[in-house]
Amino acid sequence: MTETKPNKKPRKERKPSVDSLSFIRAWQESKTLKEVALRLDMRPSSASQRATNMRRDGIPLHLMPRHELTVELESLIELARSLAAEQKTLEKKKG
């Protein structure tokens, strides 16, 4: 006779898998990992791993940040780039 464990949790129902063409299209059209996950109703970690596996198989999916950059952070990045460019220009004039 088989015994069932009283504290065993019921299994969660699996979501239908996303076909490769839909995944590639969503990945290439999205700006962040979070956006891909929301579009495809999957966990960000699952989407990231699937993209990694596809790249390993030779599919050239673009790299993207795991988190959205805030407007403030984007402004700081642009400022740092412009200051670095100015510094290079000054160094060329001196040199």
Mean pLDDT: 85
Domains (count): 2
- Secondary-structure element sequence? HHHH
Estimate percent helicity: 55-70%
The total of beta strands comes to 0
Structural class: mainly alpha
Rg is 22 Å
**Unreliable residue stretches:** none
Strand content: under 5%
Biggest sheet features: none
Helical region count?
4
Describe what you observe in this structure:
This protein is mainly alpha-helical and 95 residues long. The protein has two domains: 48 residues; 29 residues. The chain contains four helices and no strands. The longest helix is centred in the last third of the chain and has 24 residues. The radius of gyration is 22 Å and the shape is elongated. The model has no long low-confidence stretch (mean pLDDT 85).
Provide a quick synopsis of the model.
It is built from 4 helices and no strands. With 95 residues, the protein is mostly helical.
Key features of this structure:
95 residues, mainly alpha, 2 domains, 4 helices, 58% helix, elongated
Note the topology.
Blueprint lengths: L19 H10 L3 H8 L3 H13 L14 H24 L1
Helix pairs in contact: 1-2, 2-3
